[in-house]
Amino acid sequence: MPLGYNARVDLITGSPTRKIDAVRERLAREGRDVILLSTGQPGFLPPRGLRERLASLLLDDGLKRLYSYTPTPGYGDVREAVAEDLRLLGGPSVSPDQVVLTAGGQEAMFAALSAILEPGDEVVLMDPTYFGYKPIVEYLGGGVRWVRAPMEAGFQPAEEELKEAVSGGRVKAMVVVSPDNPTGRLISWGTARLLADLAVDRGLWIVYDEAYKTLVFEGEHVYMYKLAPDNTISVNTFSKDPGFPGWRLGYVYGPEWIIGKVRMVSEELVYCPPSFAQIAVLEYLRDRRLRLEHLESSRLFLRTRMEAMASALEELLPEARFARPGGSMFIAADLGHYLARAGLDSEGLAVRLLEEKSVAVVPGAYFGPSGDSLLRLSFATETPERIREGVRRIAEALQAG
Ligand SMILES: Cc1ncc(COP(=O)(O)O)c(C=O)c1O
C-alpha cells in the first residue's frame, strides 16, 4: 500500500536564500570567494559589552535557568523588558501578557498565522513582499490575494486596489511588513490609516512584520498596533537587531486573547523559546546605553553600505530603477531594461551571477508576481568596497549577455 502524506507540504517551496546558501557553500569548497548580496544576516556582531557579560553568565553556577526549559511564552522578566523596550522606542504600551517570545521571527509568523487562519481563508499580501509568508499561508490551507505596491507609488498600495482585494471572498488577514523586505520602504501614514480603517470596518487581522523596525535610516516607523490595537498582531525578531539570527529569538504582541492562542501553537511547535537567547536579550534591553549605542552603530553600519550600493547602482547600472530604502538591509533594483537586452529573467541572471561571477543575489520572482525584473540586493554583510565590486560584476554579467 502506498503511504500517504500531507500534500500541502509541497506548497512549501523553500526559502531562496537557503537554496543560494547551498550553492554558495559548494562554491566556497571549490575555493571561490563569493560576494554576498543575498543574505539578511547582519554583518555586525552583537555589542561586545553584551558578549562579555554573557561570557561571565555562562560560568555562573547559580544561573540554572540559563539551561532550563522556560515558560512557553518566555520568561516573565524578559517579556516585561520587551514591553518596556517597545514603549521606550516610541511603540505602544502593551502588558507582558500581550507578548509571546518565539524561536525567531519565522516561528513568530508561523504561530501567528496558525492562530488565525482556517483552510479556505484568504490573505492579502503586497506585491512585492517578503517570500516567507505565502508558503505558510498555503501550507495552512489558505489562499493569497496580491495587491500591487509598485515602485512608482513608493511601494505603497493603491487605496482602490486594497479595497477591492479585501472585499468578497474569504479574506481574513492582511500581512504587511515595514520596513519592507525586499524594497526597504516604510509604510506611509496614509497607508497605515487605510489598513487600520479597512481592518476595523471589515473585521480583518493585520499581521504586521516589524523585523526591521529599529533599522530605519530615513523616515519614521509606524506602529500599526497603535492605530488598530484590536486587529493587529505584530511579529518581531532579534535576528537583525541586535544580530544573533542563529540564537533564534523573536516575539509576537497583540490583543491578549489572540496572543493566548499564539502561545498554544508555540507550545506545540517549540515548547519554549531558547533560554540563552532570552537571557541575552534581557541583558541587552535592560542596559539602555548599550542598547541605544548599538542601534546607532548598526544604523550607521547599514546606512554606509546602503549609500555605497546606491551610488554603485547609479554609476555602473544607470538604467536600473530603484528607490533608496528608508530602512531594512535591502535594495530592490529593477533591471528590466538590461534583462530584456540580455534575454534573461531575474532567476537566470541570479544563476549566472553566482556560477560565473561569484556574486550571490536573490531573484525578484520570489517576492511576488511583479518581481520578475527585480533583484533583491542585500547591503547587510559586505564592506562598501565589496558591495561596489558586486554591483560592478552584475553590470559586467549583463553586458556579457
Ligand atoms: C521581513 C522578515 N520577517 C521575518 C524574518 C524571519 O526572521 P528570523 O530570521 O528571526 O526567523 C525575516 C528574515 O529574514 C525577514 O526579513
Helix content: 40-55%
Biggest β-sheet: strands ordered side by side in the sheet: 2-8-7-6-5-3-4
How many beta-strand elements? 12
Termini gap: 51 Å
Category by helix and strand content: alpha/beta
User: What sort of overall outline do the alpha carbons produce when their principal axes are compared?
Assistant: globular
The CATH superfamily of the largest domain appears as: Type I PLP-dependent aspartate aminotransferase-like (Major domain)
> In terms of per-residue confidence, which ranges show pLDDT below 50 for 5 or more consecutive residues?
none
Overall structural domain count: 2
Strand residue percentage: 5-15%
Per the CATH scheme, the topology name of the largest domain is: Aspartate Aminotransferase, domain 2
Ions, cofactors and other ligands present here are: pyridoxal-5'-phosphate
Largest sheet: 7 strands, mixed
Q: Describe the oligomeric state of these chains in a short phrase.
A: single chain
Q: What is the arithmetic mean of pLDDT?
A: 96
Q: What is the overall number of helices?
A: 14
CATH hierarchy, class of the largest domain: Alpha Beta
Helix-strand string: HEHHEHEHEHEHEHEEHHHEHHEEEH
- Over all CA atoms, what is the radius of gyration? 21 Å
Query: Under the CATH scheme, which architecture of the largest domain would be assigned?
Result: 3-Layer(aba) Sandwich
